[in-house]
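Escalated from tier 1: magnesium ion holo job.
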Amino acid sequence: MQRLSICIAEDSNVVRAAIQSLLTKSGYFDVVGAVPDGRAALNSCRETHPQLVLLDVSMPEMDGIEAARQISALSPDSVIIMLSSQDDMEVIRDALKAGARDFIRKPIHGPDLIQKILTIYAREGSRRSSTSESLRRKILAFTSSKTGAGTTTIAINSAVALARKLRKKVLVMDLDVLYADASHCLGRKQQPSMAELLLSPDPQRLENIRKFIMETTSGVYLLPGPSTPTPDLIRYSGIEAVIRSVEADYDFVIIDFPHMIDDFWVRILEATDQIFLVVGSDVPSIRSTKVYLENLKKTKIPTRRVKIVYNHVTTDGNVDRKDVQDFINMPVYSEISCDRESVTKAYLSRTPFLLKELTQISRDVETLVEKVFLGRDSI
Ligand SMILES: Nc1ncnc2c1ncn2[C@@H]1O[C@H](COP(=O)(O)OP(=O)(O)O)[C@@H](O)[C@H]1O
Ligand SMILES: [Mg+2]
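Tier 2 regenerated the structure:
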């Protein structure tokens, strides 16, 4: 059995060491953090995203309840269990409201502690899998109503943010059958691409697909798009099955999607979990987004799956977030600043800007990624 990663936050050195040794010796747990206060627990969870967090209620620096609140926002999949010596209903209620899943009262006999943690984790696991359909965030399409909105730029940098910051295994699949340039942006020379894969025997077999995927220097994996426009090849060769096969190998599959919304591409969009619709700040982009959304409403894709990313491709004009929302009649989920210098330098040097010095545009992409992937949808 794979050990469950756990962080223990408890201010008494003696109790903390005893729990750590007990859990480690049990063989069920891998203690990835053993810290004396809430703030240190938060920092540890930011790094390790453990499966379990054991939090003492009263601790210096930041108490367990505040730590539970912040950890559940930062790492929503971590199951937080409070440890308390107080028999206080008020405290228990606050802790559960803050995001804790259960409570264990101290003192507790060693074997009981282990049993209780395992039971809570198993219960939370089955609850998670029963809601996983609505929370699936694995196949992410980045698209826009017209070329030039910044789709590739944002897709690539989001992939890098996921791989670098959240240490996820991410595949970028360039499905832009007309203007495939993810490969350029990730610093790869042109190489056998999706086109050659689809022309090879048995293109949907995972072992075959793997031969066409390579790791890039930014840590993300890439299945390059065709070097010359080949819309028909993609259309008639079972690309959906390729997506389904490959998803098993990755935490996330980011698709750089073409700017088309005919029946074929709608079917592919239906197979994705979230759709980031990038809107450029020029008037044609905003106008065509409205048309795009009207067409999307006629499909089976639920609107809640679509997130609007307002990309300030230019500083000209004065269309602000509110104007865009009013015009397309949908809330803007995230905004990306205009930064021609960083974006152009990144394109020319074939290195995503997220790997260069920290600028506002990098922070904007990181915020987008954190908001989606750490469950901070409400901020
Ligand atoms: N936030 C931004 N600020 C400045 N320029 C941008 C920004 N986003 C994209 N661009 C520029 O806009 C152009 C189109 O971007 P790209 O990502 O290729 O769009 P798409 O994939 O939608 O066609 C590129 O020249 C890119 O450098
Ligand atoms: Mg593009």
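The domain at 4-132 is CATH 3.40.50.2300 (Rossmann fold).
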